[in-house]
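Internal tracking record. Fields below are filled automatically when a chain is submitted to the structure queue. Please do not edit lines marked as system-generated. If the sequence contains nonstandard residues, flag them in the REMARKS field before resubmitting.
Queue: standard
Priority: normal
Entity type: single polypeptide chain
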Amino acid sequence: SVSLSSCLGITHKAPPHTDLPAENKSGIVGIFTVVDKGMGEEIIAISNEDACFGGTIMPAHGSADHSHKIFTLSVQAEKETVLMLVPAGKVASVRNKLMDNHNFKKANSGIFFTFDVNAFYGLAKNTSDGTEVKSEETGAQYDAIWAVVPSGKDVAVIESAEKGGSTGGTIFHARGSHVVEHGFFLSALEPEKELVMLIAKREDAEAISHSINEDLRLDDPGTGVLFVFPIGNP
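SYSTEM-GENERATED OUTPUT FOLLOWS
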């Protein structure tokens, strides 16, 4: 679980407000990367040298680059995303090795960000070694914006986000589940979904979220959900 900065699209059944601790007390930090297809296993192998716990690789694709078209069709690059949980005391070492082996600072080379984990289950090892890790100050602060929308609405999300100041995003194919009070065959009622992830400067995140919310009418039930959480500097 992580602390969200904001959430749109669940106002009709929003849970009561809960204050969560601002500091990371779990001893775990999440690392999320977006790289070209075929590089996910390399990212995990490099990270596991510093006693990580493996990772989860998810296929995705980047939002279309409107400056590159073939026969008027926008090109969407195939991507892999990697989610890893890392002991807080190992984050700096993992980050440095990834930066040495995969230059994320180079244009179009991928995305790397970290986020605090408030709570976790399923890791048997004792992960808290008491080492304090501080992020390098880069001047700008960033948020991760996640939008879950019906299949085929990913382009609309990207276009709305660009109106708010976004420069592109990463798209995942997924499926949702209906909450059915009466009846059976739930598996036959799983609509296809698209999950769009955008990285934005903190001062732009509200405008981007507002633009997506207005264009896709997320306050109407069944139209989608958007949530935002702060991410650490790489």
